[in-house]
Amino acid sequence: MRRMVHTAVRAGSAFTAVLLLTAVTLAPPTSADPEASQLAKSAQNVTSPGADPANHGDTLNWVLDYTDNGPGAPATATITDPITGAGAKQTFVPGSLDVPPGWSPSWSTDGTTFLDTDPGALTSAVRATNPNARPGGTHRTGALLPPVQALATPVGGDGYTPILHRTAAGKTEVWNTFHHTGPAAGSLVCTDLSTGALCTGGPWPKALNTAPGPFQPAGSGDIITMLTPQFAADPANPAIVFYPALTSGSVGVGCLDLAARENCGYTALINTPTAWSLAGLVAQGGNLYGTAANGQVLCMAIAGRTPCAGQPYAAIVPPSRNAQGNLYLGSMTVADGKIFASSSDQSNEPMLGCFDPAAGASCAGWAAPKPLGLAPIYTYNAFTYYDHAGVAIGACSTLVVTGGPSATCYTLAGAALPPPPVFGAGVLTFNPETVTTPDGHLRSYFGIWGGTQRGATVCMDWTTGTGCANFPATHPTVNSGFTRDYGYAYDTSTECLVGLGDGGYLFSVDPVTGSTPCIRTGVTVALNPAAFYCDGGDSHVQGYQSARLENINLANVNLAASTVDVTDTGGGLIASPSFAPDGTIDLSGISVTDHPDISVSAHLVLNNDTDFTDTNHPTMTLTYQGDAPQVCFKTTIATDCSTTDVTNTATVTDATGTSTSNPVTLAVAPGSGCQPKIVVNKEICASHHSYDCRPGGPGPWVKKAPVGLLGLLFAHPRWRITITNVGAVGISNAKVNDAAEPSCATAAGTFTLAAGASKQVFCDTSILVSLLPMTNKASVTYVPANSPPGTPPTTTEFSSAVACSLLCIL
Fold first, then answer.
1. What is the rounded distance in angstroms from the CA atom of residue 429 to the CA atom of residue 382?
2. Distance between CA atoms of 324 and 330, rounded to whole angstroms?
């Protein structure tokens, strides 16, 4: 039998200030199967640490330790904990349900129907569910992302570039907005790469709106999108994405909250009609920068989402194609903290300008913009130029031109640079995705199409200063090669490029081989062992153990070419272990003390993708050595005096069946507002007639009998004891104490007395007058009603009355 008698958390615990209320496990879980899973229930008094019994109004932390004794394979486990006396004896504390990583919380107000949102104090039962529970429970599992196959979705011909977003549940999503669309049109689409289908929450596409709130159906928008939009994430929250936007009266920055699936507002930056289109956005120094069609530089502070002081700044390029609304011909890039913008209007020669955020003006050496080529040619991009060490030394723009050089580049100071040797003439070239690939090389990947080119990826290797091997790469397996590439997003987990183009297809490209689809997979799994516990203890975790590939045929994996990165919470590299032949990764050498929170990223090179099917989903599981995980929630004990105890019992259903926890019952002491107040009044009858001294008789009843009342030889005083409860609760097991006249105690017997009630006891004495005067004292001993078992009795103060003789006046 497991017995838990808690007295205090160990010194040094994060929860040291909260001592544990004594809670005794009455019995082991009531399951006939000795291998059944177990729930161990205990309680902590947060308000009155160590109080036994607890007090009205105290907050309790109910703790469930769950030991999964399943057969080994992942299975669903559901812990259900009804809150006994919810709303009467105790009330759920909103927001207090704490479940381990990988578990999903739910709440119920009726004990039957469970909700995904916390209803607050109305909660009558809580639940935690894990669809992949395993023996021990000390693990985290993540699904390997299936290789991205060509996918025709409502990304549409105007889907433009992809935005990668990883959800809290571990899914990888691709978001995109259509470009150069009207305000009411549907513009926003989400694709779930884990399933190869559109995200839940459709229909897609959704509208873009200036007002914050959930995404609305197509037809309800009020934002026009740009021709070549660039997207920037909030450094403090990567799920917040900013995009260039045009409304009926201004140009500015729109905001998307991909996690909440809602618009998060709009910031107007300029409202002059001559500026009604925008290149950008690019991020630098906590700000977002764009270039209006009139050539002025616009700026928004990311933290406050407000226009920067002094913006709009002076123009750094000639006007772009502003007469046609949102069709800005050009783009932006950042190099060494400087902002570069290209601009063309198909009538004048295209230009490249430079803005210095520190000076709030054109860069040194860039008092006038630099020419990119002769008219009538135009550009769709601007990109950063790097040296062999990966240092940004300039900026470039490629041109749509049928002859001559197709790219023009300048140094930071405005001198000419030789163009990268990878661009052909007569094609549309868009902004690159620049990444460090697994071999350590810095590469830029450009989408191209136009003329006879149906769609391809061009790659510049800045480390070598040459074009990448295996590129340009076309995509013949996607829509017969008609991809018309716009741009790519690099998935650091799978180490694949995810592409979108004018052909209306989502596809993937291997950044090394150039092949489509990219036959790689990967996953990043975070593990914070301390998050599995909620009782404040500091000794639950002993160390990390391992990571393991599961549900995958290792013959289909090139383990030698696959890599692993272990990082800390700040992204710093801790270790780069190798896969063992059995697909495991040894994590035991990583100190859980030095690194209490780690992320393990596996990058797998596959021989084929046959393991990824509708019924088989490869995963990676991390494990650590530690105690059974915990589920916790808090309740507050009612202040009603009728609450004398609170109790709680939970159940779990998993692969072993259903098990019930030990019940825990905590006694609750009556508070000051729940105590009786007993007043005792001892009196003597002052009448010569016994008739007047009977129960209900008129007396008179006095505190001292008059001289001569009690006779000459034998006295026969008659007494009345009045007991009144002027308190809030009753008493029980009450007895009268009267040492001088035990008959009074006998007459009272043992009694109860409700709040506000009175009781009178009548008794008499025979005594020699020579023994007078006699002072008779009485008190009452009682136990307050609703007291916990073992509560010691309370005795009132004495009340007295005096039987007199002639000595009373001497």
1. 10
2. 14
d(CA 279, CA 292): 6
Looking at residue 452, what is its pLDDT?
87
Query: Quick one: DSSP state of residue 326?
Result: T
CB atoms within 10 A of CB 234: 18
Q: Quick one: tokens of 510?
A: 């291997």
Pairing of strands 664-669, 54-55: parallel
Q: Give, for 724, the enclosing helix (H) or strand (E).
A: strand 718-725
The C-alpha atoms of residue 805 and residue 810 are separated, in whole angstroms, by 10
Q: Which two tokens stand for residue 517?
A: 């689809």
Q: Which three-class secondary structure state does DSSP give residue 273?
A: helix
**Which of 397, 418, 387, 509 shows the shortest CA–CA distance to 459?**
509
Q: Give the contacts of 304 (CB within 8 A, at least 6 positions apart).
A: none
**For residue 577, what are its two tokens?**
């272990």
Nearest Cα residue to 644 out of 783, 799, 745:
783
Which tokens in the block code for residue 653?
């259903």
CB count in 10 Å sphere of residue 712 = 8
Contact 499/191 with Cβ under 8 angstroms?
Answer: no
Q: What are phi and psi of 641, to 5 degrees?
A: -65, -20
| Nearest one of 111, 197, 89, 99 to 146, comparing CA atoms | 197
The residues, any chain, with a CB within 8 Å of residue 143's CB and separated by 6 or more, are: 170, 194, 523, 617, 618, 619
In DSSP terms, 719 is beta-bridged to 684, 763
| 723 Cα distance to chain centroid | 59
CA atoms within 13 A on the CB side of 756: 1
Three-state secondary structure call for residue 796: coil
What predicted TM-score, i.e. pTM, was given to this entire model?
0.76
- In whole angstroms, give the CA distance from residue 137 to residue 623: 9
Centre a 10 Å sphere on the Cβ of residue 534 and count the other Cβ atoms it contains: 24
Residues 6+ apart with CB under 8 A from 395: 333, 335, 338, 340, 352, 354, 382, 383, 384, 385, 409, 410, 412
- Distance CA(489)–CA(193), nearest Å, equals 13
Q: Pairing between strand 332-335 and 485-491?
A: unpaired
Segment holding 538, helix H or strand E:
none
CA dihedral angle for residue 305, residue 311, residue 316, residue 322, rounded to 10 degrees:
70
Q: Summarize pLDDT for 359-409 with one digit per residue, the tens.
A: 999 999 999 999 998 877 889 999 999 999 999 999 999 988 766 558 999
- The answer to whether the CB of 792 falls within 8 A of the CB of 756 is no
Residue 798 CB burial class (10 angstroms; 0-12, 13-18, ≥19)? middle
Q: In whole angstroms, how far apart are CA 708 and each of 689, 701, 766, 804?
A: 14, 16, 16, 8
Per-residue pLDDT for 156 more than 70? no
Measured between alpha carbons, how far is residue 675 from residues 641, 669, 726 in Å?
9, 10, 10
pLDDT of residue 723: 96
Q: Has residue 233 got a pLDDT over 70?
A: yes
Helix, strand or coil for residue 769?
helix
C-alpha–C-alpha distance, residues 468 and 422, integer Å: 9
What is the three-class DSSP state of 674? helix
479: phi then psi, degrees, rounded to nearest 5? 50, 40
Beta carbons of 138 and 623 less than 8 angstroms apart: yes
* Pair 107, 115: CB distance under 8 Å: yes
- pLDDT at position 155 over 80: no
H, E, C per residue of 328-374 = CECCEEEECCEEEEEEECCCCCCEEEEEECCCCEECCCCCCCEECCC
pLDDT at 669 over 90: no
Instruction: Write down the mean pLDDT value for the chain.
Output: 89
Counts for the chain of helices (H) and strands (E), in that order:
1, 67
- 692 φ, ψ (degrees, to nearest 5): -75, -10
Supply 683's token pair: 């009196």
Residue that has been written with the tokens 């729109």 in this structure? 254
Phi then psi for residue 516, to 5 deg, are: -130, 130
368: which residues sit within 8 A by CB, 6+ positions away?
none
